[in-house]
Design goal:
- With 237 residues, this protein is of the alpha+beta class.
- It contains four helices and seven strands; from the N terminus they run H-H-H-E-E-H-E-E-E-E-E.
- The relative contact order is 0.18.
- Keywords: Membrane, Transmembrane, Transmembrane helix.
Length: 237
Amino acid sequence: MPEETARTDTDTDTDTDSTAPTESGSSPSSVLRTLGCGCSALVGVVLVCVLVLVALLASQSSGSTDFPRVAPEDMASRAFQRSQEAYDVLGFKRTVEPGGGNVGVGAVNTFGSEFCYDGGPLGMEDKTVDGAYRMNHEWGLDHVPASQAVSGLRRLHRHLEDSGWEVTSYREGGKGKDWELYVRRGDGDERMTFIWFPDRQYFTGFAAVPCAYDPAWKDGDVGPSEADERPPALLAS
C-alpha cells in the first residue's frame, strides 16, 4: 500500500484558485461591474436634472414676449392713473401741471417710455423686442416739508400693501436721509417708486405699466413708442 505523501505549502498555493473571492466576498471583476453601474446611474441622474432645469427655464421665458396690442396713449393713461391714485393718498394739496423741467428742480409731470426685452429660450439673453414698449409716468413736486412728506409716505405705504402691491423696499430715512418706497405687482410688470429728499424738500413719484405692442408700429421703426399727448394735470385730492 503506497504511503500518503504529505502536502507542502507549495502544493497548497498551487491548488488555490486564482479567481477565488477575496475576504470581502467579491471578486475584482464584480467590483468593477458595480462601480460601472454606479457611475452610469449618477450620470443618468445628472442628465435628468439638466433636462428638467432647461424645461423650467424654457417654460418661464416662453411667454416673455406675449404682450397685448395696446395703443401707447391707452397705456400712458393707465400709468397716469396709478400716479393720480398715489397722489390722492399722499394728500398733497397742489396741482401739478403737465410738463416741467428736470426732476429735482421744479414741478414735473411727464410721460416716458422704455424698451421691452426678450430673455430668449433659456432666459439668458437680453435683446429688445420690435414694436414693444413700456409706458411710464413721472412727477415731481418741490417745497414739500417733512410735515407733509413723512405722514403721506407712511400712509401710502400702508395703502399699497393693503391693495395687494408687493413692497420691495421701504426706508424711513431719518434725519437728513432720503425716504424711499418701492412697490411692484404682477411679477414686476407694474412698479412704482416714491422718494422724498429732505435736504431739498423735493418729492418724486414714478409709475411704469406692463409692456405692450404698438398696433401702429411698422418694420424699420427705431426706438420705443411715445405717447403724443401730454399727461393731464395731477390734481390735489
